[in-house]
Amino acid sequence: MTTATAEKKPQFRVIDAKTKTERLYLHPGQVKVWDSEKRIIAMICGSQGGKTVLGPAWLEREIRRRGPGDYLAVTSSYPLLSKKMLPEFRYLFEDVYHYGTFNKLDKIFIF
């Protein structure tokens, strides 16, 4: 009997608990988005392309780089927002960086 072992994928993000700094491991498509200096950037790819996990990290960096203003985090459907994007966004912005809280009633993030 042989046992097949699945190759373990590296984590997308590793966060240092003491310094609260994150280390991202991006695939080439994510690197293009991360490195772009364009005013409007769209990451368009199929399912499991890394959009949901890259989005909040990229947005956090843009807020730090560009300062106060209006920022959008958008998705194609409410189920995708509630099950995937919002938990990832809240994890990074609330739990890791402690930037504020999500108001469930108004559906806005308050810094």
TrEMBL record:
Name the UniProt record assigns to this protein: DEAD/DEAH box helicase domain-containing protein
Source organism of this protein record: marine sediment metagenome
